[in-house]
Amino acid sequence: MNAAPHSAAARADSLDILALFQAREAERYSLASRHMNRALTQVLRTIGFDVGFVRGEGPYLYDRAGQRYLDLLSGWGVFGVGRNHPGVARRLSDVLCAQLPGLVQMDTPVLASLLAEALLRRAPYLQKVHFVNSGSEAVEAAIKLARRATGRAGIVYCEHAFHGLSLGALSLNGEAIFRDGFGPLLPGCESVPFNDLAALERSLASRPAAAFIVEPIQGHTVAVAADDYLPAAAALCKKHGSLLIVDEVQTGLGRTGRFLAVEHWAVEPDMVLISKTLSGGFVPVAAVLARKDLFDKVFDRMERAVVLGSTFAGNDLAMAAGLATLDVIDAEGLVQNADRLGQRLIAALEVIARRYELVADVRGKGLMIGVELGEPRSPALRASWRLLEAANKGLIAQAITIPLLKEERVLAQVAGHASHTIKLLPALTISDDDCAWIQRSFEAVIASAHRAPGPLWVVAKALAGGALRSSAIGAPLSSRARRSSGTTSGSGRRASAR
After folding, report:
1. Same domain for 275 and 210?
2. Rounded CA separation 178/170 (Å)
3. Most CB atoms within 10 A, among 45, 180, 407, 496?
4. Between the CA of residue 292 and those of 162, 262, 301, what are the distances in Å?
5. Full DSSP string of 243-282
6. Does the reported pTM lie above 0.85?
């Protein structure tokens, strides 16, 4: 009678995941093309990003030959404490070995309450936490909280915003290419230009809105809120009875040199959304931090105790990852490290901007930095720029990322579709030596770009040829996507994917 469970265990023990990875790793692009997203593999191969990384440690990636790369994507901000942090891994292992009674559902999870307590200590103007599994889910939950609490339906968001790709979050997405073909979306959602207080007041005054949702630094443009923007936006929301929701999915947990980016502006939102770094890079997790009175209007009687929830939210592994990540951030002084090294990097990149005409702007806070390219003044470079722009807007920025990867072993990417901005989003654990690596690499590639015709322009023109031939939907070189959406695509990938 007991043979079946033991036999099943024996079969499970025969699975060697690491051996399977090693045996099939070289097939990764053909497997993905065959079974998953073929367009993505086309993109990676077209732009030369089909490296095949096999190991990650801290801020570094390693390829099959053992070559080390500096990762300035950090999984779109997931690896704030670096890849495979041993402290986080050890605590996750402890939880797995403890056989805790997780996801009982008809119970209150202890680790979730402890993580909520730890988060609220860092945002004392908020009193409640709702856990979900991703940034998009956090946005969805915030929409529901705002609607219930205010009795209003509309949400105001910013042009070029990115709040996720699930249906409600997509309704607040400031890029048309992501929305195309998925409508109709939520009614009553209206966009306003980022950093435009007059437009925000017109929108809030014209009709009742449940909330205004905003990123302190936009993920798709690396545009930073002006000094007076968030404080004035908070005042406008209060004046018109709308809630202020600040999306800190990418900017939170030390990324900008403060635990939350809103601390730069001394703003106290009605809700704060966090995710990405909170995972420790291991287990998906996200949280909505909110005022108590908002929660009380949703969970206002016992039969409504489960009207806002998610099956896997609050699971022990995710909560342990969050607690361990907060401990690492504090113990290693990562908020302070991001602040110090961010200032160093921005200053170094500004020197490059003054030296080379292709670099139009350097902006950001902490270790969320944008390097924006602009049309050069010299005739030869300007002619090449315009040729590439005619083929595909933002192509030159994509062309910069290729020699960064191939020649300097620095993994970076453009901030968004049709963008001229390259975004730097490294782990908060980078060192002064890593900053020197970034500075040296950008200077070498930017200097090369000023030779026209030079090696970088050859790469760019090859990409332009691909842009005119490609029909891969959603690819950065896709003319068909440009025709269908009325926009051009610079990276082919979402810059702040949730």
Report:
1. yes
2. 8
3. 496
4. 27, 20, 15
5. EEEEE-TTTTTTTTSSSSGGGGGT---SEEEE-GGGGTTT
6. yes
- Asked whether residue 387 falls in the same domain as residue 463, the answer is yes
Q: How do residues 11-59 score in pLDDT, each as one tens digit?
A: 657 899 999 989 998 888 889 889 998 888 887 887 778 888 999 999 9
Q: Does residue 13 lie within any of the structural domains?
A: no
Contact partners, residue 250, CB within 8 Å, separation at least 6:
76, 77, 135, 215, 217, 219, 276, 368, 425, 496
Give residues with Cβ within 8 angstroms of 167, minimum separation 6. 182, 185, 186
Helix (H) or strand (E) holding 154: strand 154-158
Same domain, 280 and 210: yes
Pairing of strands 271-274, 421-424: unpaired
Distance from C-alpha of 480 to C-alpha of 195, rounded to nearest angstrom: 32
Q: Give the C-alpha separation, 140 to 45, whole Å.
A: 34
Q: Please state, in angstroms and rounded to a whole number, the distance separating the CA atoms of residues 212 and 233.
A: 8
Task: Return the number of other C-beta atoms located less than 10 Å from residue 390's C-beta.
Answer: 12
Distance CA 61, CA 317 (A): 24
- Tell me if 440 is assigned to some domain: yes
At 221-254, the pLDDT tens digits run 999 999 999 999 999 999 999 999 999 999 999 9
In the beta sheet, which residues pair with residue 53? 63
Dihedral, 425, 428, 432, 437 alpha carbons, nearest 10: -30
Q: Are residues 318 and 350 in the same domain?
A: no
The catalytic residue positions are 162, 247, 276
**Which domain, by its residues, includes 394?**
36-71+334-485
Distance CA 23, CA 51 (A): 17
